[in-house]
Amino acid sequence: MNRLSDPEALGRRIREARKRLGIKQSEMAERFQTQQSTISRWERGQLTPDYVSLIQLEILLGESLLTDAGYPVEEPIPVTRVPVIASTGPGCLSLAPDRAAPRLSVLADDRYPGVERYSVKIADHSMEDAYPVGSFVVFVPVGEIGRQLRQGDRIVMTDDRPESQRVLAREVSVGKAGDLWAVPCSADPSLDRFALSADNASATVVGLVVQSVRLE
Questions:
Q1: What is the pLDDT of residue 5?
Q2: Which of 45, 100, 121, 182 is most exposed, with minimal Cβ within 10 Å?
Q3: What is the pLDDT of residues 44-74, one digit of tens each?
Q4: Same domain for 48 and 122?
Q5: Which pTM value belongs to this model?
Q6: Cα–Cα distance list, 20 to 13, 36, 61, 63 (Å)
Q7: Shared domain check, 97 and 51
Q8: Has residue 144 been placed in a domain?
Q9: Residue 87 three-state SS
Q10: Rounded distance, CA 84 to CA 86, Å?
Q11: Is 157 within 8 Å of 180 (Cβ atoms)?
């Protein structure tokens, strides 16, 4: 990749195109599932959007921005769009997202071909050592990956207890007896661990994380 020579010029193009289309910074931030301050920094040339964000900007604004940002366009990296179906925290998870669900552009990969991908926004600190608040994890349904969970896998799951239905992200840990646990990636000792046993009706593993994205 070439070094960006004029980040302020790129920022001006983004700002002018946004204004020409009548899009507010707050509206763009919502579409990108990020903070308005991030959009402002892009437009002032204080922060350069990453490759995936530039693809999203090109689609939204109808502007060719990759070359200005120093990216070669002869061999573009394939990008796919996945629905953002939930945030970690209170609530439920459905793999039948509404058509109006926001979409996140991510780099395509060839793992688990033909398997649908979904995204969840990280909105709590339970995985802060791996995924900062505001980032996204992309996952594939565990029932479609053709393998068992193993040490170090990161997963999306639900806490199904009626009094505390939540969407969670956790990491798989293997105990001394070979039993699987879903554990937080955080130093906070108050966060829940879950036994991933067949007879544990209080938690359901939904997906295997295959990618993470941070737009801030």
A1: 59
A2: 100
A3: 989 888 877 888 788 777 777 877 776 665 5
A4: no
A5: 0.70
A6: 10, 18, 9, 12
A7: no
A8: yes
A9: strand
A10: 6
A11: no
